[in-house]
Specification:
Blueprint (H helix, E strand, L loop, with lengths): L6 H18 L5 H4 L4 E5 L15 E5 L4 E10 L5 E12 L5 E3 L18 E2 L5 E4 L4 E9 L7 E2 L2 E7 L2 E11 L7 E9 L6 E8 L8 E8 L2 E10 L9 E7 L7 E11 L3 E11 L2 H27 L36
């Protein structure tokens, strides 16, 4: 049996079709439009291989004076040619613990001694032209200076084009004795109540990168106060670096004097602790209590003066209750008068 369509139903169907067409013509995500159009990653190899054959970073190790080799893969995902420049860079921690790389042209305040970033060489491949929809593999070398100290020397390979940069981590280690060591400094408690935080500074005193773990204990005047149990710190602390961190402490007491101990450990036997004392006083409640006591004291003092002001005063010549000799209550006896004649009486 044929189905009859009313004009109103046909209009609704047309609107649905137009809406579906509009969804297919929505422009691409702006974030996708900001992509550089090319990618940089370690070329497929045998070290640190992910499932699928890719590596998340470079890992290179060698003795002083060694020349290490690896390859970088650049993929052009667009329909136009790309020109990418390559360089090595030193990696470091920012003040809050994030990882960053040194700029290509260090400013006047940068360290004068070059780091591992200066050990990289791309030969004639420092500038690479990548045809459309093409993958280019660029070899590079890392020449370890003969006087390099053992341990980790964090670095990165930086690919740049038209102001856009992409970095690939390089875990670079010079062979030799390693030392995992750190210190905890500048422990302090900031804020009050649920907004309290424990601030502290970590310094890597060794020659290897550290993945620290934190434990906060607190002891108050009335016994142990709930702190923060062991937990990983979301920071990779590079050798020789200093970072300033804070840890939320929602269980801080409302009224107590507390000694807070921050203990940090890391693989390799690194362990350090720092402590600080802090008063927790509900100043708002204390202020209102002080004002109340002050007002109560003022009221009591005013009442005392009022009572004293109403008491009757007695003169020095006041008689007793029966009055003087005249029989008049409260009468006074006049003093005798003397004649100053010099004659005896």
């Amino acid at each position: 049996m044929p189905v009859l369509h009313s004009p109103r139903r046909d209009v609704r169907l047309l609107l649905v079709l137009l809406a579906a067409a509009a969804l297919h013509t929505v422009p691409a995500d702006p974030a996708a439009a900001d992509e550089p159009g090319w990618t940089a990653e370690p070329a497929a190899g045998t070290a640190a291989v992910r499932p699928g054959g890719t590596r998340p970073y470079f890992y290179l190790e060698g003795a002083p004076a060694a020349v290490l080799e690896d390859r970088l893969a650049l993929t052009n995902t667009t329909d136009q040619e790309r020109t990418v420049t390559l360089r090595g860079a030193d990696a470091h921690n920012t003040a809050d613990g994030a990882l960053a790389v040194r700029p290509a042209a260090p400013g006047p305040g940068a360290a004068s001694a070059p780091g591992a970033g200066s050990w990289f060489s791309f030969g004639t491949g420092a500038t690479v032209k990548i045809p459309p929809r093409t993958r280019a593999v660029v070899p590079f070398t890392v020449t370890v200076p003969s006087a390099s100290p053992p341990g980790d020397h964090p670095a990165a390979v930086i690919a740049a084009e038209a102001g856009r940069e992409a970095g690939v981590r390089v875990h670079l280690r010079v062979s030799g004795p390693t030392l995992a060591a750190l210190t905890v400094e500048d422990v302090a408690v900031r804020g009050r109540g649920a907004s309290s935080v424990v601030a502290y500074t970590l310094v890597n005193r060794g020659n290897v990168a550290l993945a620290p773990e934190l434990d906060i204990r607190a002891e108050g005047a009335f016994g142990e106060v709930p702190g923060r149990g062991p937990r990983a710190v979301p920071v990779e602390l590079l050798p020789g670096q200093r970072v300033e961190l804070t840890e939320p402490w929602p269980g801080a007491p409302a009224l107590d004097r507390v000694r807070v101990t921050v203990t940090v450990t890391a693989p390799g036997g690194a362990r350090a602790a720092g402590a600080a004392s802090a008063w927790f006083v509900p100043w708002r409640a204390a202020g209102w209590t002080g004002l109340g006591l002050l007002g109560l004291g003022g009221t009591a003092l005013g009442a005392l003066f009022l009572v004293r002001g109403r008491r009757p005063r007695r003169g020095p010549a006041d008689g007793g209750a029966d009055g003087g000799p005249s029989g008049t209550p409260g009468a006074t006896i006049p003093a005798p008068e003397h004649e100053l004649t010099g004659a005896s009486r």
